[in-house]
Amino acid sequence: MGDPWTDVGVVETYTGRQFDVFDPVAEAVDLDDIAAGLAHTCRFGGHCQHFYSVAHHSLHVSRELPEDEPRLQLLGLFHDAAEAYVGDVPRPLKARYDVFERVEAEVLDAIWRALDVDPPDETEWERVMTADDRLLAYEAGNVLEDGSWAGEPPDLAYELRSDSIETIRTQFLSRSETLRDRV
Fold first, then answer.
1. pTM (2 decimals)?
2. For 51, what's the count of Cα atoms within 13 Å in the CB-facing half-sphere?
3. What is the pLDDT of residue 126?
């Protein structure tokens, strides 16, 4: 890789690697970078009433999926993993400019390869996104000033005040290891 200041797509990661978001390769992916990036990234573009990380959200999405389907839970844990490299872009922006979705999809493909996990099929992805949408409505109703745009919050009982960044990072890594061992 060249100079990260002139190579527009290159970002430095938590572990000091250089990751090109426009040309993502599996060899540049590191699980520690994903866990740290997601633990440091606040949901809703940072507009929560208190800090609530994407890693914490991902843990809850994973737990929303059936316990007897560890692969599905693993897919849920990593559904937002690309955000470790590209940040949490709010849905309205993604909906308007599909380039965000394309970049995220390419980064996520590199992550699946790096983790040696087959990408989700359409049915699996739909189930993960259903869990993600349930969490979105629950989170919006509990961590935003007015999250009514997300619909009626479901009756869930997840803690939405993130522990320390280090604690959430460790929990994410531990859940990843547990699920990967079960798949």
1. 0.93
2. 11
3. 98
Question: What residues pair up with 53 in beta bridges, in sequence order?
Answer: 42
Tokens found for residue 37: 């990036």
Per the DSSP assignment, residues forming a β-bridge with 145 are none
Round the average pLDDT of the chain to a whole number and report it: 94
Amino acid occupying residue 84: A
Per the DSSP assignment, residues forming a β-bridge with 11 are 19
Number of Cβ atoms within 10 Å of the Cβ of 1: 12
Answer yes or no: CATH 3.40.50.150 is held by domain 10-171. no
Residue with the two structure tokens 């470790």: 84
CA distance 59 to 88: 16
Per-domain residue ranges of the chain = 10-171
Task: Count CB neighbours of 148 within 10 A.
Answer: 11
Judged by phi (left if over 0) then psi (alpha if -120 to 50, else beta), residue 3 lies in beta
- 126 touches 65 (CB < 8 A): no
Residue type (1 letter), 156: L
Any idea what DSSP says for residue 52? Answer: -
Nearest to 38 by CA among 129, 170, 183, 180: 170
Task: Read off the pLDDT of residues 66-85 as tens digits, 9 standing for 90 and up.
Answer: 999 999 999 999 999 999 99
